[in-house]
Amino acid sequence: MSRSLITRPRLLVAAAALAVTTAVGGTAFAADNAPENVGETSPRTSAAAAVSALPVDAPRFAVVNAAGQVVRGSAGTSAGLTSGNNVEVLFDRDVRACAYTATVGGVGTESPAASFIRVAQRSGKPNGVFVSMKSGSQASVVVPFHLAVTC
């Protein structure tokens, strides 16, 4: 009976080595593109450069406050209030073929009031998501929320 030169432990070690090499290479790439100083402004760190660097299929996200403004989010993300206490979130690309997941959530350590949240494609804007919120009594409200878009 012949033994294979590649045994299960050797295969696991090879897979682990590949994973470490990939992780270290990704870290080096990220460090290479990081600004030298936090206050530095250069073409590498501009919003336009960040938008173009974001892969098309990368998840997009937004954390929006009760005023309908993006507190933090992926590059090229903006938001604003619409009529009827709803929020429109705009991304840097067409998101019509994507999945939208939203949850009521604070922008910091606060805990917002219990509410219902609904999401849909934004009519007439291929890069937009429409977010509607209701209180427990079904009144229209705007509460802070987190939105993830996965394509």
Highlighted features:
151 residues; alpha+beta; four-stranded antiparallel sheet; 2 helices; 8 strands; globular
Brief summary of the model shown:
It contains two helices and eight strands. The protein has 151 residues and is α+β, with helices and mostly antiparallel strands.
Describe the structure.
The protein is an alpha+beta fold. Helices cover 22% and strands 30% of the residues. The chain is built from two helices and eight strands. The chain has a four-stranded antiparallel sheet with strand order 2-1-8-5, with no helix packed on it. It has a four-stranded antiparallel sheet with strand order 3-4-7-6, with no helix packed on it. A hairpin with a 3-residue loop joins strand 3 and strand 4. The longest helix is centred in the first third of the chain and has 26 residues. About 23% of the residues have low confidence.
Kindly name the structural category: alpha+beta
**Residue ranges: pLDDT <50 for 5 or more in a row?**
17-51
Shape: globular
Number of helices: 2
Strand content: 25-35%
Strand line-up across the major sheet: 2-1-8-5
The largest pleated sheet is described as: 4 strands, antiparallel
Indicate the mean pLDDT: 76
Binned, the helix content reads 10-25%
E-strand count: 8
> N-to-C SSE series?
HHEEEEEEEE
Distance between the termini: 50 Å
Radius of gyration: 21 Å
Topology:
Layout: H1 8-33, H2 47-53, E1 60-64, E2 70-73, E3 78-82, E4 86-90, E5 99-104, E6 115-121, E7 128-135, E8 145-150
Antiparallel strand pairs: 1-2, 1-8, 3-4, 4-7, 5-8, 6-7
